[in-house]
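User: structure tokens for AlgX/AlgJ SGNH hydrolase-like domain-containing protein, please.
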Amino acid sequence: MIKKLKTIFVVFITIFSTVFLLELIGQNFIFKGQLYFINNVDHRLMPNEAPDINSDGIRSFSESDRFRQEDLNIIFLGDSFIFGLGLPYNKSIPYQFEEKARKRHPNQQINVANFGWTSSSPLLSYRLLKDIGKKYNPDIVILAIDMTDFHDDIKYLILLEKKGIYQLVDYIPISFLVLKKIMEKVAILDPVYEWAYDLPRKMFFITEKPLSETRPYFSYIQQNIEDINTFSKKELNNAKFILMILPRSYQYSDKESPNNWEKNEYEILGQYSHEPFKYFESIKNEVDYPIHSLLPDFQNTTIFPTCFDHDPHWNEEGARIAAEAIYKYCLEEGCFK
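Assistant: Done. Predicted tokens:
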């Protein structure tokens, strides 16, 4: 009996010591960057952190006082595609949109605010909009959906609520991260991973399975879209809300971004790559806001390449195609006087 107790004690001390060292080293060195995102789910841009980031932490050379009530003010919500990752400020989608709109409508003072930032999602965009949206007096709120948003919205909600296994984040965050990373690499553990972490293992799960299997997961992003729409109407002086669905290159080309660092995360032009677009097409007549897909605009363009060689984000030309398409759809919706 004593021998058994000694064995249990040794095992306990070994596990405790391992976890302690893992937490000590991980929190201060190896996983310091990832820990930042767990402790700071919103991970917004810091005010004035760069010349093109204003005091509200959005990508703009202008402050909110430029957005006067008598002007036509438009807010773009989105992630790195809207932010313009890898692009100078004047080549980002919101800026190119603003430039085109101003040229076409010289009698209107049109101001565009870029509320996008890397790894944002509709949930985080909604939180930002609630915090600073009113300052920009928006007449139009445009939310651009990217293919990572479906997974991100579930992940961020769980991290914010810290339910179930996510309660460990406050106590042993590094052990939590290590276990999660290990399970992410083992496909056979999909059911266990989904049960433990309350979300699918693969970031792009939404285009890896038929809509009939993934539809339940759309409820998360759909709720956040509805919340943004409702907030725009009730709290932003009945601002018009428009939803834009952005494609990634793997959904319209097998030649783009040949050295793409994430190309192994999805099947290029796969059997289910268009399932998200089918979903939004199916609900168009059920919602009270317009939905537009940019997939046809990229499928039909003769411009190549639209993305960087090593990265899935749009280059200057890709951003221009998107900006022109969004302008076209806004024109159809009567956004300009």
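User: Anything notable?

Assistant: The two ends are 85 Å apart (CA to CA).
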